[in-house]
Amino acid sequence: MRNCSSTRLTKRSVEIATKAITYIDRNYDQPITQESLSYDFNVPVRILQAAFQKLVNASVHKYLEKKRLEAAMTMLEDEEISIKEIYTKVGYSSQSHFGEFFKKHTGITPAQYRIRKTA
Question: Which parts of the sequence belong to the HTH araC/xylS-type domain (predicted)?
Fold first, then answer.
């Protein structure tokens, strides 16, 4: 007997998740939640989340964090871009929150990362 409670992914839900991924890739500097994506793409949160998990093996939140971290790391390698400019470009409104986020994921501060990469 088929389990009716499991989330079945349709071609449409995978297409929507793919569009949501593209949206995140282009707009990671904006406030984005799985709820806002669900609303914008007119798909239930649980379907969006399941499709994300299948496509990128991560939740919407984790995927967004990954994109922001990758972008920040790339920008930190350019000494012409200030850390303040970087944290706003990756969607953070305060340097302290950005610093906590960055250190949580890398084990070092943004300034330490910059020194290591530009030395």
Answer: 18-116
